[in-house]
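Cross-posting from the chemistry board since nobody answered there.

I work mostly on the small-molecule side, so proteins are not my area. We synthesized S-adenosylmethionine and want a rough idea of how it might sit in this target. Sequence and SMILES are below. Is it possible to get a predicted 3D structure of the two together?
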Amino acid sequence: MPRSSILLVASATAGASTAAYLTSRIEGRRTRRAIESARQQLVETLAPPPAATPEQRHEEAIVGLLLGRPEAVGRGVATPITDRLYSRLHDSDLAAVRSRLEGHPADLYAVADPSTRKRLTLNLAAAYGVLPALERAGLSARMPPEDVHAMARGPMAAGGDVFLADLVFDALGHAGLEVPDGATVLDFGGSSGRVVRAIAAGRPDLECLACDPNEDAIAWAAGNLSMARFFVSPQRPPIELPDGSVDMAYAISVWSHFAERPAIEWLAELHRVIAPGGALVITTHGFDCLSTLLRRAHVSTQTATAAATAMVQRGHHFVDVFGPEGDWGVRDPGWGNAYLTLEWLLSCTQDDWAVRLNWPGALDQAQDVVVLQRR
Ligand SMILES: C[S@@+](CC[C@H](N)C(=O)[O-])C[C@H]1O[C@@H](n2cnc3c(N)ncnc32)[C@H](O)[C@@H]1O
């Protein structure tokens, strides 16, 4: 019954004092209800959150461990290839590049350390078409069009990836492995040739080969870059090269994509192709990669947890990220994103390869660089 009706009935039947009594009863009930509701709210606010599931506790622990790792050290890579290229330039070449500097490259050039500035000069000579400089260095200005696979584009990528060329030879040097004059070198998974073109220019004494299953990338490179021999390779072994015909091979961002089986099969195939004592430089995704990707929010906590858990349990983790469309048309269920530990690599290479060097997180704080020597 509404309050006004109660008061009306009350005053009609029992007089004003009864009405006052009823009014105070009603007010009392409302106050108690308000107190009860506030108490309820307080209980809910102070109550501990629902207990975390074992999966949530596991994820929290793994993410905590990954984020607790010291950040991977960005390695100051020496300049073994850059120095060869840069030393061929004349002052007039440097002046020509500097005179064309503008925008973002100019900003980078202004703050670059001496090694980076040398690499930048070579790239910008290609980007700005400083022909005498390119001729002297042996670089080409040609760049793959947008519809051809290339891992980097734009002025800072023009002419080829001198940094990665340096990284390969710096790692080999630290591993105590020389690449002798006249050696045969293979860029395995070389795409449209950004690395091999820089190596071949820096070391014209080498016989440079590059392969990739991406037919368009290989066709473009074969038609535009004369410093190396490009050929299409199959998704799975064998490759069309004789036993022991290669002295050094490298694979940038390739074992970081192989499922466990192709990863092992291709190690065996390159063991066949590389001569005894020869070297294989690979880059892989390890724990540093997961830490860095988490810090950069480039990977979900679930994905990082699944990868780290599998790496601890089995040493290798694979995720099919390309699906039926494939990676630029390269379709293979064994090609996706892969994470692996050095222990896994050691366990499946020990009879065939000696691990001569491991630089965790050396490439962009995300990829480990490993040098293997063929036994
Ligand atoms: C991430 S890209 C790196 C390309 C090149 N190494 C670079 O750094 O510019 C990976 C390359 O591996 C190639 N690839 C895919 N499956 C391969 C296989 N089974 N054997 C060799 N290369 C493969 C891809 O087509 C792609 O060009």
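Reply from a structural biologist on the board:
Welcome over. Reading the output above for you: The first helix runs from residue 3 to 46. The pocket of S-adenosylmethionine is lined by residues 149, 151, 188-191, 194-195, 212-214, 217, 233, 235, 252-254, 327, 330, 335 (CB under 6 Å). Happy to explain the token format if needed.
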